[in-house]
Amino acid sequence: MAIKGDLIRWATKFPDSLVPQIIYLVLDSWKNFRTRQIHEVKITQEFFRVLERKQELSKLPFLIDLEIIILNKDGTEQEGRLDLRFIHGYRRKVYFSIECKRLRINLPSGFRTLAREYVIDGMYRYFNGQYAEGLDKGGDDRICYGWQS
Length: 149
Hints:
4 helices, alpha+beta
């Protein structure tokens, strides 16, 4: 039995050609995004809805998932959580993900930066293989959330 279809959908790496489209979608969506939320997860949820609408209107060839739990190899423990996952194809482990972080917080006691914590507890997960294991790309949009108070 012959199987017809787009072989790229079975690729083991996320297509390089889609990364600029995702970056443009994120930056273009953030440009006019406004929220009253102050918590990172709530901001990400609202931003996801904006991304989802723009992605559908633009007919971009990927799906966007929100708040994906990453399990350990046995599936017995949660190791992390991807904020936004972009999938193109039939393999769930082949994705481009973006971590959404608030790096600058204005508290009643003064300004606080979370950059150090984010590098240690966030970005490092891409380097140690906890996120995007076996993949060659991933992202974060700290530039977007950096101004939030």
